[in-house]
Specification:
Elements (H helix, E strand, L loop, with lengths): L1 H28 L1 E10 L10 E19 L5 E14 L10 E5 L1 E12 L7 E7 L9 E7 L4 E7 L7 E3 L5 E7 L10 H5 L4 E2 L5 E5 L5 H10 L5 E3 L1
Parallel strand pairs: 1-10, 7-12, 8-13
Antiparallel strand pairs: 1-4, 2-3, 2-5, 2-6, 5-8, 5-9, 6-7, 10-13, 11-12
Length: 234
């Protein structure tokens, strides 16, 4: 009799274990919607408070999401955009091409890696303005431009700054990738900006272009910093 009771109890525990395991397996297979967006912040410490930024865009060639979970297999999802996917920094749009269904559950790390498109059109472009110390000198529109492909990688962080968080199928997440162009000027002096070359159009408007062929000394400094403090936050 005791042996029979023990056998029944063992079968009950085993059944509960299987049910719990199946529930967990189903839960972790359910997709959680995560939409990625790319933007910029004009804030930050730069070479001069007279240097400001107002707009820009990035053109993506490929976009990869790499996940590591506390329970469940790691994964990597990639998308390629042969013609480029242009993302304006300031927009109210949701780009379905950057919408992913990721396995729900507890994450120990979620990374994003993307490459910009190499072309004759800048794949990373930021527009701003610079006011010179000389009040009699017209301000210059500032154009920062990268035509070469750039690769960026960062961890997705929770609102509290942790790389560990939980994704749920009941909550759609927006992960915002933010560039910080003022911080790219960490090693650029105000004197370098004051002496930078610019072009003047027939209306006397001035444009200071910083790229691989114009104002190259400044560009080299920016190019080494462009990925610094690039963040992606839920």
């Amino acid at each position: 009799m005791k042996l029979l009771l023990r056998l029944k109890f063992s079968l009950l525990l085993f059944s509960l274990f299987l049910m719990t395991g199946c529930d967990k397996e189903v839960a972790f297979k359910n997709p959680a919607d995560v939409v990625f967006d790319v933007g910029m912040t004009p804030q930050g410490i730069g070479a001069s408070d007279d240097l400001t930024f107002s707009d820009g865009y990035v053109i993506l060639h490929y976009f990869t999401v790499i996940g590591e979970r506390a329970v469940g297999e790691d994964f990597e999802f990639s998308r390629t955009f042969p013609n480029g996917l242009k993302i304006p920094f300031y927009n109210n749009l949701t780009f379905e091409d950057l919408s992913f269904e990721l396995p729900e559950g507890a994450y120990t790390n979620l990374k994003v890696r993307f490459e910009t498109k190499r072309s004759n059109v800048p794949s990373v472009f930021v527009e701003g303005n610079y006011d010179y110390n000389n009040p009699l000198k017209r301000s210059s529109t500032v154009h920062l431009a990268w035509n070469t492909a750039k690769i960026f990688e960062m961890s997705v962080l929770s609102p509290t700054g942790s790389s560990s968080f939980t994704l749920s199928e009941t909550k759609k997440e927006l992960a915002q990738i933010i560039f910080q162009p003022k911080r790219w000027f960490a090693n650029v002096t105000e004197l370098m900006l004051e002496n930078a070359t610019f072009v003047t159009d027939p209306s006397q408007a001035q444009t200071m272009t910083i790229d691989q062929v114009t104002n190259t000394a400044i560009f080299i400094e920016l190019d080494s910093e462009i990925g610094v403090e690039l963040t992606c936050t839920l």
